[in-house]
Structure formats: C-alpha cells, structure tokens
Amino acid sequence: MKRIVLILMISITCLLHGITMKAQTIDVSKILKSIVAPEFPTRIFNVLDYGATKDGITDSRIAINKAITACSNAQGGIVLVPVGTYYLAGSIVMKSNVNLKVEEGAEIVFSSSPKDYMPFVLTVWEGTELFNYSPLVYGYHVSNIAITGKGGHRGLKFKAVYVKWALTRFRYSNVILGLNPSFHPV
Predict the structure, then answer these.
(1) How far apart are CA 47 and CA 66, in angstroms?
(2) CATH classification of the domain holding 56
(3) What is the tally of structural domains in the chain?
(4) pLDDT digits (tens, 9 = 90+) for 69-118
(5) C-alpha to C-alpha distance for 178 and 152, rounded to whole angstroms
(6) Most buried by CB count within 10 Å: which residue of 33, 90, 100, 151?
(7) pLDDT of amino acid 31
(8) Phi, then psi, of 105 in degrees rounded to 5
(9) 145 pLDDT exceeds 80?
C-alpha cells in the first residue's frame, strides 16, 4: 500500500510540475570512443622547489598550488609530490595541462576545518549547481588534467566533521534541491 501511495505522489508531483518521464538509452561505446587520454610534456615541477615541506605539520597548500600554476603557465607538465607527508589547510586548485603525480610513499593530508575550504566555489551537489565549500581538489574551466602516482591522500578527522554536517544538512536539503528547476523526485 505504501508503495502505491508513493507512486501516486510522485506521479501527481510530476504532473503538477509538467515533468514527463522518458526512457533514455545511452550508447556507452560512443562515450568511450570520445574519451581521450591526457598528454603532458615531461617538464617536472617538484613541489619542494616551491616551498612545500614534507613534515606533515607545516601547511604546503600554497607551495603546491604555486607549482601547479607555474606548470600550467609553462604550457604544462608534471607537478611532482615526492615521498613524504604533506599537510594542506585547504584545497588543491588544478589548472589546465597539469599532471599532479603523487609518488609512492607520498601522502597528502587535508585539514578537516571547514573554514579552510572557503571562499565558496561553484560546484554541484546532488545535481544542483550552487556555491559551496571547495572540494579537496578543485578545478574550474580546466582541461587536460590528471592525478597519477601510487601515493595517497586523506582527511584529518573527516568522519567526525562529516557526521556533524550531515545532521544539519537535512534541514536545508529541500530548500537547496528546490532551487534546481530540473529536480524531480524520481
């Protein structure tokens, strides 16, 4: 019975908002053929040369972003994050023609403080474009980028921060989703 009521509610909502449900077919082979692997010059931009420290304590965000900017300005190459632990109080901002290579044994540790991911940036949340906290790695209007290597990344105490945020997000989610003119509950 609950399922029938839910289907009726969805159908009525769609009718009221003029939403039609159409089956879509996707030609995956066509999509795969359109994907082109990025190519980069062999120039190396070592983040240590731009002031990054691999002690896991000192903020290396500015240095890593400087290396990325220098690489992009030189028409591209490889931004190398060598072995060590790099603390970042904020986002990595990708630029065009950059391969961010995190070597095996290298780890990027991101801050868990929300204030480090401001100012807000244009992003997408559940299909709705909005301004929100910057993701850990962000790029806007960029092309030919990659993150490669066997190194890793992690957030400090992200679970605790996320749980706190998740408890409050539901208060606002209907308002945010309502801003999307194409949103429908199906």
Answers:
(1) 8
(2) 2.160.20.10
(3) 1
(4) 999 999 999 999 999 999 999 999 999 999 999 999 999 999 988 889 88
(5) 37
(6) 100
(7) 84
(8) 95, -5
(9) yes
Measure the N-to-C terminal CA separation of the chain; round to a whole number of Å: 19
Residue 64 covered by a domain: yes
Task: Tell me whether residue 4 is in a domain.
Answer: no
- The closest of 125, 117, 123, 113 to 173, measured between CA atoms, is 125
List the structure tokens of 15. Answer: 């009718």
Contact 132, 123 (CB under 8 A): yes
The answer as to whether 183 is a domain residue is: no
> What DSSP assignment string belongs to 144-185?
S-EEESS-EEEESSHHHHHHHHHHHHHHHHHHHHHT-TT---
Count CB-CB contacts under 10 A for residue 45: 24
Residue 19 resides in a domain: no
Average pLDDT, the chain: 81
Residue pair 99/79 in contact (Cβ under 8 Å)? The answer is yes
Residues 37 and 104: their CA atoms lie apart, in Å, by 22
Q: What pLDDT, on the 0 to 100 scale, is given for residue 163?
A: 66
Q: Which helix (H) or strand (E) holds 124?
A: strand 121-125
Inter-residue contact 70 to 114 (CB < 8 Å): no
The tokens describing 37, both together, are 């692997």
